[in-house]
Predict the 3D structure of the following.
Amino acid sequence: MKKYMKYTLGLAAGALLLIAACKKEAKNVSETIKVQYPIIRLKGAEYNTIGLGGSFTDPGAEMFDSFAMANGWVAIEPTQSAVDPNTPGMYPIIYEGTNKYGFKSQAVRWVAVTPVPASEDISGTYFRTSNLQEISVSKVATGIYKVDNMGGVPGIPDYIFDTYFVQLTDTTLHYPEQPGPFGNTTSADEYIDKSPSDTMIGWRVMGPGFGTALRNFSRK
């Protein structure tokens, strides 16, 4: 009987030690993760232009993940790349990267396909004709322009954000779909009207948060 009790007590003590060890191990499993997004670095220019019927070779991109520092910078493939050299437009080449904790980053290279010559420049300060709101149009590459307030909306900071359009011809331009504070935006009914005394540009903003009225801008 004593032998049996000693055996039982030994099993109980072993079980308690095992439980204690498991609890200790369980405590060590949890860890605090600092939010850190992978860094994506484009090789080559962010904005590129080719002539109609031309060709473009993507120089690629690479990603650095601080949770996998031993790997250093690692080459990554685009998740979207569909440049049509025979159709005027502005095409995104999108790179995305996700680390082991699910934090995701994105980088975009833009490629414009346009017959517009490098000497063409319609940049400047424009005023919306309906309310005289000033907007800035800056040339970033042949045929590619950055606009700081595509809606020409006065006095509301949420509407002041950068968008990009491509000049397709002497008389037309287009905003490719791109993110804004209210969702993705694009354009419709775009035009360019150049005269000796003025350059007019205009479009309808197509996206949430905007009315669809034609917005006209004058560079005087």
Observations:
- Residues 2-29 form the longest helix (28 residues).
- The radius of gyration is 29 Å.
- The chain has two domains: 39-113, 124-219.
- Residues 133 and 152 are 6 Å apart (CA to CA).
